[in-house]
Amino acid sequence: MFSGKWRNMDYINLLQWPAMVINILSVWLLTYQAKRMRHAGFLFSLLSNVLWVIWGWHVEAFAVLGLQLALATINIRGARKTD
What we know:
Keywords: Membrane, Transmembrane, Transmembrane helix. It is a single chain. The chain has one domain. Helices cover 77% and strands 0% of the residues. It has four helices and no strands. It has helices at 4-7, 16-30, 35-59, 62-81.
């Protein structure tokens, strides 16, 4: 059904693309003055952190894992402060 290229494709590697798009969207939302939009930005950023951690674990990018865990901590703090 699929050629060899698609059959053997590593789908976890594709996670970096939605992670990037979601991260850009989250930063866009964080620039709003409306509390609700900023809160959504922090939540989107947390989703991006989760996707980057999955991807980073898969490719053994340990610096990315450390960065995403630190950013997730900051995002949790930010989400709490916007409530």
